[in-house]
Design brief:
Length: about 350
């Protein structure tokens, strides 16, 4: 495989892009002279909306909002090592969309060593709708994830997995690598010599990148251990699980280079981590206080249930006089206060 290529594009409904693109990739209408079209596959086209992919995307142009997207497309390079290029493209598409979207897939191959596939699909799901207008309305919402940049990253990762199934030795080109180029019959000695030189350079670059990556991992591990030991006395109250998560967070921080690509120094790491460690310690203190409050609440609830089970015990500050004592106190006459004359007899 000379190169791996996956690119995504969209078409505006207001410009009728869906029907035009479906006709282009299928070699229809004014594109009928395209001889490279090897196969056209329509799948998951709702019968209530259209009979084929061309009519489906024409309906999308008509019924989507004027400034909305009528389709999303992918241009996919097919590995030359694939014996059945149509089957390879169909397998990759089914693995990517998983019967969630209606799509049209076209395989192009001029025989010049550049086989590729055009995939166009509707971002809306396959909800059962009575009319085409309902299908392209808010009743059948679009999949928002396919508009996110992470979707393209996952698509490229899946693409590489499928490529390596038919070309196990294929490794995508790294940044800064020269393109090796394909092996061509009757290309001449000059081409083969230059190709061999490019292959040697790529091998050196990849071995160097692998060695640097290993050294970076080892250095990051040592820096992480040093940073953790530096703050270890402040993290004594942390549990074992919390210590693991804190060490992981430190390792992620240490592994990130500076904006200019240079590795971080120990002093820089400690200065940047000091604020993070203070936040972690404050979190530990809040967690400890929360657990203590939970324990106190559980103890009070257990005591309340125990007292309720024994019929309850009166509080020592609660005075409950008996009925007998109350009647006796009411029957006794009130005594007159002592006078000075009566007190004088004791002098």
């Amino acid at each position: 495989m000379a190169t791996n290529y996956v690119s995504t594009r969209t078409g505006s409904a207001g410009k009728g892009a869906g029907g035009k693109h479906a006709a282009y990739i299928s070699g229809l209408d004014r594109h009928a002279d395209k001889t490279e079209v090897q196969a056209v596959i329509d799948k998951n086209i709702p019968a209530s909306v259209a009979k084929d992919g061309l009519e489906f995307f024409q309906k999308a142009d008509e019924l989507e909002r004027a400034n909305g997207r009528s389709y999303r497309s992918l241009i996919i390079a097919i590995p030359r090592e694939a014996t059945d290029k149509t089957a390879w493209a169909q397998t990759f598409t089914d693995d990517l969309l998983k019967d969630r979207h209606a799509y049209r897939l076209a395989i192009h191959d001029k025989g010049d060593g550049n086989p590729h596939a055009h995939l166009m699909f509707c971002e809306r799901g396959l909800k059962e709708c009575k009319t085409p207008k309902d299908f392209f309305s808010r009743q059948n919402p679009k999949d928002r994830f396919v508009s996110h940049k992470d979707w393209l990253k996952q698509t490229k990762a899946l693409y590489l997995t499928h490529v390596q199934k038919v070309a196990p030795d294929f490794v995508p080109a790294m940044k800064g690598e020269p393109k090796i180029g394909p092996k061509l019959k009757n290309a001449g000695g000059s081409y083969e010599t230059k190709r061999a030189d490019r292959e040697t350079k790529v091998g050196i670059i990849r071995r160097g990148e692998a060695a640097i990556e290993g050294l970076d991992k080892k250095l990051a591990k040592e820096k992480t251990r040093f940073a953790y030991d530096h703050f270890k006395p402040q993290l004594e109250k942390a549990t074992a699980r919390q210590k693991v998560s804190i060490r992981k967070a430190m390792r992620i921080h240490v592994s990130k280079p500076n904006k200019d690509g240079s590795p971080k120094t120990i002093k820089q790491i400690l200065n940047e981590l000091s604020q993070a460690v203070a936040i972690w310690i404050a979190d530990l203190a809040r967690e400890s206080e929360r657990k203590a409050q939970e324990i106190r609440a559980q103890m009070m609830e257990a005591e309340r249930q125990r007292l309720a089970a024994h019929g309850g015990i009166p509080s020592p500050f609660e005075f409950r006089p008996s009925s007998t004592w109350g009647r006796a106190a009411q029957s006794q006459p009130a005594q007159a206060p002592a006078t000075p004359a009566s007190r004088s007899r004791f002098k």
